[in-house]
Amino acid sequence: MNKDLLTRNRLRELASQAVGLTLGSKHGAALSGLLAKVGLRGLGVNVGYELDQSGEAYFIERALKRLPGAVCADVGANVGDFTRLLRRYGSSKVYAFEPVTPTFDELVAHVGSDPAVQALNLAVGEHSGVIRLFVPDSGGRCTLASRDIGITAVPVTSALEVSASMVSLDDFCREREVRFDLVKIDVEGYELEVLQGARRLLADAPPALIQFEFNVHHLHRRQHMGDFAAALDGYRLFRIATRSLRPLDMSHYLSNVFVFQNIAAVHETRRDLIDAFA
Asked: Which residue range is the domain that position 113 belongs to?
């Protein structure tokens, strides 16, 4: 080892010790927390829910340029903001799934006039059938529904139970003879179940892109990013940052941060989609 390398290593060691002594002191707690939060935002964690702020608009615009005429699934479409984003940037067809009837009515009001959008009053999950959902008893607009209200911030005493029809993506694609280029999933903690209900689709006709939300719900449900990586064999996983994709390494501790983030799964055959963000 030459003298210059030894000097650099020694300087790094001293810098590391200085950082530890400064930030690790009782007076460094606030600064340490601030730096951690700022750094995580740069990695695409807790970046905000608005489509522009979260990086989703940036991501979809560039992704759909590489997927002209894409057929898309918006699973957990809510009132249609993401569906309209997909249409704005060139998708030829969007199947928008929303199980809660009042929210579905708003979805139809927002996108129902678009012949390229099919709004479906359905939940999506691991099988087809009837399930129960919990929604806030707010007396007004409902934009949240979960199969387990206990994993949300909504008090159990302030929730209403409703029934909903649910379909698996495998059953839906087989019955409708549909193949998706892009699937977005936002279902309040049950994203993994949607993928479990798409095993045949993922094996036989894998979408080029799958976007899903990952947050504290999955901590409550004892699910981690490795579970998603296992379900998405043949895909590379990235966090969506405001203006880039951040690769996820399942062996690194930062792969599991249980705060709001959007994950992009890119199929290994579509390296060009990754290059669009290089």
From this structure: 44-275
